[in-house]
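User: Predict DUF11 domain-containing protein's structure from this.
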Amino acid sequence: MASLEELKKRLYKEKETFGERMVPPELTRTKRAGSVFWQETQRTAKESRWFLWAVAAGLILFVIGIVFFVFGSPTVFRSRAVDVKIEGISEIKSGDRISWRVKIANQSNGMLEDAVLVFNFPNDASPVVGPRPEGIFRERRSLGGVRAGESIAENFDAYVFGGRGTTKKVSAVLEYRPAGASAIFAVDASFEFSVALSPVTVSFNLPSDLRIGQEVEFEVNYVSQADQALANLYSQMNFPDGFEFVSASPSPLPQNKNIWSLGNLPPAESGKIKLKGKVHGADLESKIFKAAIGIFDPAKNSFLAYDESSQTIILRAPFLSVNILANGSNEYAAFPGDTISFDIALRNNLPQEIKNASLEASINGNAVDFASLRVDSGAFRESSKSVVWNSSTHKPFAVLLPNQEERVTFSFKIKSNLVLATDAARPSVRIGAIFNPGVVVQGFEGVDVSGSGNYEMKVSSKLQVVSRALYNNSVIQNAGPLPPKVGEETTYTIILSLANMVNDLDGVVVKSTLPPYMSFKNVIQPADANISFEKVSGEIVWRAGRVPAGTGFLRPALEAAFQVGLIPSQNQIGSSPTIINAAEVSGRDTFTNQTLSARDDPISTDLPDDPSVTFNQKKVVR
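Assistant:
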């Protein structure tokens, strides 16, 4: 490489030539890429700032437009300027005619067209004129147009009923269309008030605690607070689940057992309804009784209350508890011919011992076979059809300590053949037991501490199916040799018969199968009988459906017939082949909701139900 001095001399020398310029070393190259990158980044940031300013300006213009639209525009409609208010009294008297005033103010800058006002009346309100409409009680009024700056008012009236202290509510909705617009706008309002007074009051006289199953007498009292006579009053009772009504004075309406007619009630006069009943349930379970007094419309079965009252009671374990089980169960459905064992569990829940206790269990029902009755340490009274235990027959009854438990048993059979009559009651068994102390319990003088228990057991019907096979004298004509011959077809008629004793049955189905060597000829009698055949499985199904009580006893059995065919093979010579297998039937008892079933045996070519077939015609021949 030439020195710098030599190169300098040559540089200024005329006609001097130089070769190709040397590429500078890599370490001495100018890094232009960094400069270009910085220039492009700076340009993007400027564009971003312009974009953000544009977005901010757009948002500001949008907000200004909304403010101008709502508050400042002299030409755009302002929906907030339409106001609806309801005025009325805050406390009313039940049954009075009440008026509400709905005020509408159009403070907007435009006309309200096609304006409609809908007013919703409170629950338990009745129109001033005419009957109360079905469903929601509301009134719809067309107001037409409401000019800008105009205020109007509409009055609505109704009779309002309800118990003292209840809160009621009315509401109104104004629907309208701004002038020059197609959209529908709505404004609503509501008003609450309370029922402070009533022309007649109702209240309970009922203990706060009751013993489970204890018979109780209580009263529903009512008093007039009106200045004039109240005409045609009624009372309505709502009893809790588990309440067993015994009696009432006066009696309820025959067609509506929870409505009482009280007649007219003069000013300041009072009256009462006396009731008697039992409450069943669990220990410490709460029960709510409700009573109302007011106006009843028998035609619509509707009740409007002047006043309402409710009271909650708490159930307690009885002083002497009685619990009855049938075959170890609280609920048991028996079948004809069953043997039922009853266990009666007793307990002294008193804080004192009881002496010389006695228990009497009455037995009622048309399904009981009293000849089969067996009693453990007790005696049967034929006159009252009851079993009695006392301290002479059951020694533990001499003294029962507090919280002590005791148990007695008896049993009987259900009749195999139940009572059959078109007007006979459905078969059932009812056991009613009463447990009493023999002497007054100390500290409970004048208090009925006896315990009681009841058990009702339904008895299911008896379902039967009978299969028969005929060759001669059948509803379907048969053909073929008798006795049956190898290689030739002989046909037979199969008849299925159903019998049902005392309860209606639903969903009755009969099933059977044909052996593989048998054929179903698809000849059915009656023709509309619902009989089907599955060729692969050989199953025959007869869907008989509903079978009334007494079928096969009080009325003819239900029957269906079909034809089958037999072509014997060599290996059946000298035998009586089965032509249909066992028939099985099932159905639901509509009284006990139990599924009943029965079966009948297979049938062979012996044809035991066809007396015209001789002994020599039964076995297969060559």
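The helical segments are 4-11, 32-72.
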